[in-house]
Every structure is written in structure tokens, then in C-alpha cells.
Amino acid sequence: GAGVSQSPSNKVTEKGKDVELRCDPISGHTALYWYRQSLGQGLEFLIYFQGNSAPDKSGLPSDRFSAERTGGSVSTLTIQRTQQEDSAVYLCASSLMGPLASSYNEQFFGPGTRLTVL
Amino acid sequence: GQQVMQIPQYQHVQEGEDFTTYCNSSTTLSNIQWYKQRPGGHPVFLIQLVKSGEVKKQKRLTFQFGEAKKNSSLHITATQTTDVGTYFCAVLGGSYIPTFGRGTSLIVHP
User: Fold this and answer.
1) Contact (Cβ atoms closer than 8 angstroms) between residue B64 and residue B55
2) A104/B42 CB distance under 8 A
């Protein structure tokens, strides 16, 4: 079966431009996470979607960042007016159930989108 | 938010030597997961620990969860070059948002 997919794999953009990053989670997974990973660093939590509930946006670094999840499946992370410090790998992960479930599940990660802001 | 410290940040070993990484929290954890990220790759789930004092083994890998559920370790016996990568712990504490440690990068010299 297909795993988590992300597109594009690489994105180079100019400072000030908007970018959209896409994530296709594993079918049937209700939980979806976005993380950011800078070179040689750990994973920085950005946003979490669980089913049809309101997303947890507590990790978004600024109001230039937003995300949607349509139909409980595909998610799009949008960064407006990109800055050079936004350059990083953006990772999406999905899990069968979220952390509030009685049995917290493993996260399946996509290959990531490497964003470079010039 | 939940704080977790992972040490060491880097570890160089000769092939065949053992390796251990530690994950420590100041608060009690609901559970802990371990992931491996190969160079240029994405994190891949290794294991989840839930019970106090739990020990799980996967071939040469041994995972432990502390009695107080505040720390955990991953031990690799007789490292191989295929073990190269960064090992992350991910914890659930008071918040239901998983918090990842900064990771331990393992470099194995043949």
C-alpha cells in the first residue's frame, strides 16, 4: 500500500513569494501532523489535524503559516511572504489515531519537501 | 510545552562497538516512541514503550523505559554501518502533542 506522499519534493522560491506544500496521508489515517526540520536539527511541531476537529495550530511560528485539511484527507501547508529563515525540510506524518486515543499510534512520515528561500 | 532532552547529540563509534542514546524528561511521560532517520531520509518508527520499567528488544536494539516513566534509552549492541543515522525519541507528556528530542546522530566507522 502507498505510504505518505508529499509534493513537491523540492521547492526553490524567492523571498516574499507564497508557497503551498501538499501532503497525502495514508488512507484511513485520522491524524495528520506537519513538522519542520532545519539542517541537523530535530523536528519542530507545526500543526495537528484530528478527524473533523479544529486543528491544533499551536506550533505555527507566525501568521504567515496556515494549513488546511480537506475532507479529512489531503492537507496543504501554505507559507505566505516567505523569508529566508523558512528554509527547511517540511515533513508531514499521519497516524491511524491521534494521541488522545487510548492507544497512541506510530507516525508514518512522508519524504518531506525541501524548501529553499533565496 | 513538554521538554525532553536527548543525549548525546553525536556519537562516533568503531564498527562492532556498542552505542546508547538517552532521552530524559522532567515530567512523567504517557509513553515514548523511538524513530530512526537515515541521512537524507525521513523518520521511521522503531518502537513504542508504555509501561513503567518496560524493556523491548529488536535484534541488536534494546529499548528501556524508566521506572518513573521520565527517561528512556536505546542501546545498540555491536554496531554496524547500517545503523548509521539519527535516532529520535518522541514523547507524550501532559500535552497530547508529540515532542521530539533533538536526536542523536550515530556515526559508525568501518
Assistant:
1) yes
2) no
pLDDT digits (tens, 9 = 90+) for B40-52: 999 999 999 999 9
Contact call for residues A74 and A87 (beta carbons, < 8 A): no
A40 or A108: which leads in pLDDT:
A108
Helix-, strand-, coil-residue percentages of chain A, each rounded to 5: 5, 45, 50
Residue from the list B30, B45, B100 with its beta carbon closest to the beta carbon of A43: B100
CA quadruple A107, A110, A111, A115: dihedral, nearest 10: -110
Nearest Cα neighbor of A23 from A44, A4, A1 is: A4
Nine cell digits for residue A40? 541537523
Q: What Cα–Cα distance (Å) separates residue B74 from each residue in A87, B19, B33?
A: 31, 8, 11
